[in-house]
């Protein structure tokens, strides 16, 4: 009997494939790390490799590398299992949340049977996938399920339950018509027949704790320290003592055992035939044409000469804040905080920061093989010399403080220059959070928990090469400040207060500095416990994100200095009733683009793209309808020259090519797309971009009749192809006539419509 199949995959697949077209498009790209190779398979001189957030294809003869991720077809991140059949060209990707992607030459189908299944409340993580012919055995926390790759639906499932307790299948494989599963209590097997789902009918081939199993011409399985060759019920240990086995792989002619420090090669009869060291730990390895390739944890694929093959990307996926510089250069911090922005986010991999020099990603050796603990909340470069970099290390250990580094272009690495402990009396005090330059290239830092436990600001004295700390006597935790009009606008996440720091244009003299504050008395929500983010738009209004909604301080530079300054919510109309925008939501980040539109990150709610006044939602991206890796985006940055938007999260970075770039009072490069508009292929709105800040638009038919008119603000406009009566226009050529606000600049365009 079938215990697992919950819904018809035929119905689900048709829905999800249509959905896949929405999730990814040419506007999206990933900046994921492809270092951590989890599984590999050969396909006629090509290695197909799965990593944490994507799959890549490496052609051995040419060195060509292509990648597949959520930005161009996959539906999730956090891959936990993968296998591929080179004969059918079908791959199966398993994720930590239990979902699957079936990759075929015709497209990618999303399968969500396991995540939505009821009756089993344990871990739904896909532990392992093994494909044999047109079937795959999928290992999960409850046992194993058979998946039919042709029909894209589940068949029988075996729930490994004894005494009401589920036992996970660590890995499983199909040999002949029998499934073998490695579990913590033994190697178990069963024919794929009518009693397959009945766990009491399974056979324990060998008792013990087994973690890996694979088969092709023969079957091999392993405990953490011993690998076995299985033959007709007899299990024979391979002649080697292992430290910690990471994987066993069986090919046509070889058995490859990946140990903690080396990869061991055996013939299929169990005779040792050589070892390879890749100089670092590997998750897996395989043999192709007599050569061994290692799937490393930190460097992608390596061959026997330790040459590396992988798509370029940051060292890890963990990301927190990003800084953009000229020539497409990026700096990314990888830290984080929890417990109301107090406790450093624990991260065993100790990432540090990543640098993209415009051509390739570079990871400082300073963070490799070190005993120091890093929780880098922010990293920034000197605007007058971007090779000079400062980072804020927010930890409960020695070394928390600010570090100065210098980029060495010849070695493509960063040299340590200096460390500033900020006068730290203990590891719990003087923890730096954000680093910001003013318009004169003076560096300031926001500091959590100065000597009496309140937030502080610190100015960098270039001459003395030290930071001078000013205690603000407000709150305790603090966010990264935003510089605008001689003030540092600074949220306070553990207190419903916000301040603007006035350094009186004397960076190294903190004695005369002033502080202007906002609190609940100024209009923050009564249930707010902290301010989290801030952005200032073209009108000079401050958009302040709190843990309980959004507030606007109009004419901010003047208003912040007034004792009765008032912050106000944005009220939108929903079904004839006024409602506060983002009420009770945590606003993690706000960014303003070149057209004065607002990007707003809501914790757990994805990212909203709003009109300049916030009254209209233009787009709403979530992990369900877009390549966003998570619904909690920790940072957003817009390259105003190109319109590219960077979305940063702990699960990686993706970019979106926006329609608004370098908006001025005159026209830029006006572009209409799609064009022509063929109704059978596209049923959305036509976008006109490259417009002036305010553009008067008239759209006429070939006879000169005006069919549509509008005023566009913010550099672009979307036409729904309706005429002024609200009906879709007929097929034909339409002319777009445009002028800027004062009529000093003009532009035209043509749109072909095919209904």
Automatic annotation (TrEMBL):
<dbReference type="Pfam" id="PF21544">
    <property type="entry name" value="PorZ_N_b_propeller"/>
</dbReference>
<feature type="signal peptide">
    <location>
        <begin position="1"/>
        <end position="20"/>
    </location>
</feature>
<feature type="domain" description="PorZ N-terminal beta-propeller">
    <location>
        <begin position="49"/>
        <end position="202"/>
    </location>
</feature>
<protein>
    <recommendedName>
        <fullName>PorZ N-terminal beta-propeller domain-containing protein</fullName>
    </recommendedName>
</protein>
<dbReference type="InterPro" id="IPR015943">
    <property type="entry name" value="WD40/YVTN_repeat-like_dom_sf"/>
</dbReference>
<dbReference type="InterPro" id="IPR026444">
    <property type="entry name" value="Secre_tail"/>
</dbReference>
<keyword id="KW-0732">Signal</keyword>
<dbReference type="InterPro" id="IPR048954">
    <property type="entry name" value="PorZ_N"/>
</dbReference>
């Amino acid at each position: 009997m079938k215990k697992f199949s919950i819904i018809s995959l035929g119905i689900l697949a048709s829905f999800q494939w249509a959905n896949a077209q929405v999730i990814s498009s040419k506007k999206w790209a990933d900046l994921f790390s492809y270092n951590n190779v989890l599984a590999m398979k050969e396909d006629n001189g090509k290695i197909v490799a799965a990593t944490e957030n994507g799959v890549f294809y490496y052609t051995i003869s040419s060195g060509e590398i292509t990648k597949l991720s959520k930005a161009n077809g996959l539906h999730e991140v956090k891959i936990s299992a993968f296998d591929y059949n080179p004969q059918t060209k079908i791959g199966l990707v398993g994720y930590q949340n239990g979902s699957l992607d079936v990759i075929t030459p015709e497209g990618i189908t999303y399968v969500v049977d396991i995540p939505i299944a009821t009756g089993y409340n344990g871990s739904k993580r896909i532990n392992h996938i093994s494909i044999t012919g047109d079937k795959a055995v999928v290992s999960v926390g409850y046992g194993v399920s058979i998946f039919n790759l042709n029909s894209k639906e589940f068949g029988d499932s075996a729930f490994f339950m004894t005494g009401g307790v589920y036992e996970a299948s660590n890995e499983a494989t199909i040999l002949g018509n029998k499934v073998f599963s490695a579990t913590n209590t033994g190697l178990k097997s069963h024919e794929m027949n009518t009693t397959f789902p009945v766990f009491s009918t399974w056979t324990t081939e060998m008792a013990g704790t087994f973690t890996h199993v694979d088969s092709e011409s023969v079957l091999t399985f392993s405990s953490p320290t011993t690998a076995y060759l299985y033959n007709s019920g007899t299990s024979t240990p391979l002649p080697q003592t292992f430290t910690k086995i990471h994987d066993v792989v069986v090919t046509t002619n070889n058995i490859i055992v990946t140990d903690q420090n080396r990869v061991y090669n055996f013939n299929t009869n169990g005779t040792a035939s050589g070892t390879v060291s890749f100089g670092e730990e590997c998750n897996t390895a395989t043999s192709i044409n007599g050569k061994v390739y290692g799937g490393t944890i930190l460097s992608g694929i390596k061959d026997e000469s330790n040459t590396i093959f992988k798509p370029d990307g940051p060292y890890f996926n963990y990301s927190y804040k990003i800084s953009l510089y000229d020539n497409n250069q990026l700096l990314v911090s990888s830290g984080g905080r929890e417990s109301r922005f107090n406790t450093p986010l624990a991260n065993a991999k100790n990432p540090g920061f990543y640098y993209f020099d415009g051509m390739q990603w570079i990871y400082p050796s300073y963070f490799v093989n070190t005993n120091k603990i890093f929780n880098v909340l922010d990293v920034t470069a000197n605007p007058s010399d971007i090779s000079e970099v400062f980072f804020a290390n927010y930890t409960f250990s020695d070394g928390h403080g600010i570090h100065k580094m210098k980029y060495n272009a010849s070695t493509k690495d960063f040299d340590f220059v200096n460390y500033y402990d900020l006068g730290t009396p203990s590891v719990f005090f003087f923890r730096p959070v954000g680093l910001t330059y003013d318009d004169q290239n003076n560096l300031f830092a926001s500091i959590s928990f100065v000597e009496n436990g309140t937030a502080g600001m610190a100015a960098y004295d270039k001459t003395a090469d030290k930071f001078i700390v000013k205690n603000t006597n407000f709150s305790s935790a603090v966010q990264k400040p935003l510089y605008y009009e001689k003030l540092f606008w600074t949220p306070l996440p553990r207190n419903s207060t916000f301040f603007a720091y006035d350094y009186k244009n004397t960076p190294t003299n903190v004695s005369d500095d002033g502080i202007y504050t906002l609190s609940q008395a100024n209009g923050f929500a009564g249930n707010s416990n902290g301010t989290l983010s801030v952005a200032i738009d073209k009108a000079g209004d401050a958009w302040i994100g709190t843990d309980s909604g959004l507030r606007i301080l109009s004419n901010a530079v003047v208003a912040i200095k007034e004792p009765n300054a008032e912050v106000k919510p944005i009220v939108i109309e929903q079904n004839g009733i006024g409602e506060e925008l983002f009420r009770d939501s945590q606003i993690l980040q706000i960014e303003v683009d070149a057209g004065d539109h607002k990007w707003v990150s809501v914790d757990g709610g994805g990212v909203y793209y709003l009109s300049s006044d916030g009254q209209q939602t233009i787009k709403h991206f979530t992990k369900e309808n877009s390549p966003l890796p998570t619904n909690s985006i920790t940072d957003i940055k817009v390259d105003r020259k190109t319109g590219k938007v960077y979305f940063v999260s702990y699960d990686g970075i993706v970019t979106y090519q926006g329609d608004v770039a370098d908006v001025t009072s005159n026209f830029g490069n006006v572009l209409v797309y799609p064009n022509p508009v063929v109704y059978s292929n596209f049923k959305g709105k036509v976008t006109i971009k490259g417009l002036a800040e305010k553009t008067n638009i008239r759209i006429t038919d070939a006879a000169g009749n005006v069919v549509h008119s509008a005023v566009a603000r913010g550099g672009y406009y979307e036409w729904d192809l309706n005429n002024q009566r609200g009906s879709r226009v007929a097929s034909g050529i339409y002319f777009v006539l445009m002028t800027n606000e004062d009529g000093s600049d003009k532009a035209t365009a043509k749109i072909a419509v095919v209904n």
